[in-house]
Specification:
The structure is a single chain. With 77 residues, this protein is of the alpha+beta class. 40% of the residues lie in helices and 12% in strands. Strands 1-2 form a two-stranded parallel sheet.
């Protein structure tokens, strides 16, 4: 299950602890190894008027990678 809890509607960067809490909440209903983290809409909504700079989008992607590494462990390879 993909958790699209990183918004593409605002440039405000999500708090890591908030994202982890939302993952933990979802983990109450489905095994953690069946979950993954993603920006909602894959930033497609920026084409529809939601203004995010390129750097804000990259920052959100870095946050997804950072939180995923902390929750599911670093993947090498």
């Amino acid at each position: 299950m993909v958790l699209g809890v990183v918004t593409s509607k605002s440039g405000l960067l999500e708090d890591k602890d908030d994202l982890k809490r939302r993952i933990d909440d979802a983990g109450k209903f489905i095994d953690l190894d069946q979950l993954c983290l993603s920006p909602q809409c894959g930033f497609a909504s920026t084409e529809e008027g939601n203004v995010l700079t390129e750097e804000e989008q990259w920052a959100k992607l870095r946050r997804v990678v950072e939180v995923a590494g902390e929750v599911w462990g670093q993947q090498n390879g």
